[in-house]
Each structure stands twice: as C-alpha cells, then as structure tokens.
C-alpha cells in the first residue's frame, strides 16, 4: 500500500514539475458567484483520507472531485480508499485580485478495503465498506498561480461488509493542495 501511494505521489509531482501551464485571470464579475478559471488539477490530500486527489470542472461552478489513497486508524481499521464526488461552488466568500475563496458542497460515494485490528492492535481480519459522502469545504483558489489549497469536511455513511455488517456514520477532515494543468 505504501509503495503504491509513494509511486503515485512521485508520478503526480513529476507531471506537475514538467508542465508550464499558467493560471488564467478570472473573468471580471460583479456578483459573489464563483466561476472557475481552471479545468483539471491533481494534488495531495492529508487527513481522512490521505492520498492523491483530483478535480475536474465540468462547468463554471460544478466539478467532479476524486481521490485514491488510504484511511488510517478509523475505529481500528486501516485500508485502501477510493472516492468520487460532484461538487457545487455556489458562492465565493472572498473575491480578491490574488485569490478567490469559494465555498463548496457536494454528494458522492466511496469504497474502501480495510484490515481490522482488535483493541491490542492485533490483526483481526479484512473487510470492505461502501458508502455515501457529503463533503463541504472552502478552497483558496489563487488567480495568477496554478494552485489551490482546500479544507474539507465530509460526512460519511458507510455499510461495512465484515462480520456483523454494521452501518457507521463519521465525519472526515482533510486538507490538500492541487496543481492545475489547464
């Protein structure tokens, strides 16, 4: 798992360093409505989950957000994590010359495979989970630099397919950075 994550991070950094893309200025606007000036970005996300993250704007304010990585220490479970969300960016909280601060929220799904550990940190089996994600967050979207930094909370509703087939809700927090290619 660690080897795969390291390889993916190295690949993302190599792609980011080889690109000569410049951020485009944002269109002038009189309202607080957010309009993306970028199309596709890749980066790193730390927290729950941790790994590679990507975002692709389908319209001026709607985007597909996705990630691949790992979840560590969640109720004694560690494992591979994959998610995809549709995000709406209805408003920009701050609209300055240097950056925008869009608020976003969305809905999506996630799948993860995990190793289960008992209270003494001994391996206790493997399982899978699938569920619903409801993310909300803010992004520091720089106008003249092809980067954004984001903070995100995601409410999760998971169905675990190991032993008792439990249903869990949780709140995940992550922070991340993305490099925009277009």
CA-based shape? elongated
Number of domains: 1
Largest sheet descriptor: 8 strands, antiparallel, barrel
The helix content, as a percent range, equals under 10%
Q: Total strand count, please?
A: 8
Major sheet: order of its strands?
1-2-3-4-5-6-7-8
The secondary-structure class comes to mainly beta
Characterise the protein shown here:
With 182 residues, the protein is mainly beta. It has a single domain, classed as Beta Barrel (Porin). Helices cover 9% and strands 63% of the residues. The chain contains one helix and eight strands; from the N terminus they run αββββββββ. It has an eight-stranded antiparallel beta barrel. A hairpin with a 2-residue loop joins strand 1 and strand 2 (50-57).
Task: Provide tags for this entry.
single chain, 182 residues, mainly beta, Porin, 8-stranded antiparallel barrel, 1 helix, elongated
Offer a quick outline of the entry:
The protein has one helix at residues 2-18; strands at 40-47, 50-57, 62-74, 77-95, 99-117, 123-142, 147-160, 167-180. The chain has a single domain, classed as Beta Barrel (Porin). The protein is elongated, with a radius of gyration of 18 Å.
